[in-house]
Amino acid sequence: MSKTKKTLPPGIGRVLKRLHYPVDVILLCVRWYVAYSLSLRNLEEMMAERGVEVDHSTVHRWVIKLVPLFEKAFHRHKRPVGTSWRMDETYVKVGGQWKYLYRAVDKAGTTVDFLLRARRDKAAARRYFEKAIKRNGEPGTVTIDKSGANRAALEALNAERETPIQIRQVKYLNNRVEQDHRAIKRIIRPMMGFKDFRCARIILSGIEVIHMIRKGQMKDDGSARTVADQFYSLVI
């Protein structure tokens, strides 16, 4: 964590200055929360063992304030993805109700993009594809399950394109993205669901960023940096 001694960029510097704790402590708590299967109370106890008294609700505020900065910075350093996508959605509990996390990986298992939506329908699927294409470019092929909503969304997009996206509905080809969901679900399990949609969206984006860094999706300078160092370098 010695890198946190550097002069901070104005944006992150202003945020951290208002949080009234050492930078190292704040960034460590944020990283641990989105990187590992820990609850906020787990983090409170772990920091107390290290002589740092911090309430679990304070850690939550740090996560909500800082994760959007990490995500924004990460997408400036994200490596390109392939053009053959596997797309699927998984369930996430928010406010006691199931919501839908849309995700896709390419054929190599690289994360394409993600989007949390309240409903599982054509409009939600289309919004996901629009976001993913805007950030990553157009795919040549998208493999989906038997979902009629996902197919309808792709067909609507194809109707507006000169070169249509090839649509495949082959269950076994989607095993890769279904397996990839597990890494995300494993982290959120101790959280016992999210209180509200905004917090869920922010925290999930932090989990996805760490997951992509672990998969080698962040451009670097060629040095063998740890996942932690790559994560911190996004804001310091």
UniProtKB/TrEMBL annotation:
Signal peptide (residue range): none
DNA-binding found in the keyword field: yes
Domain Integrase catalytic: 76-236
Gene3D superfamilies: Ribonuclease H-like superfamily/Ribonuclease H
Domain of life of the source: Bacteria
PROSITE patterns attached to this UniProt entry: INTEGRASE
An individual GO BP term: DNA recombination
Keyword DNA-binding listed: yes
Record keywords, A-Z: DNA recombination, DNA-binding, Transposition
InterPro entries on file: DDE_dom, Integrase_cat-core, IS_Transposase, RNaseH-like_sf, RNaseH_sf, Transpos_IS6
A single GO molecular function term of this UniProt record: DNA binding
PANTHER family (UniProt xref): BLL1675 PROTEIN
NCBIfam families the record matches: transpos_IS6
Function: Involved in the transposition of the insertion sequence.
Name recorded for this polypeptide: Transposase
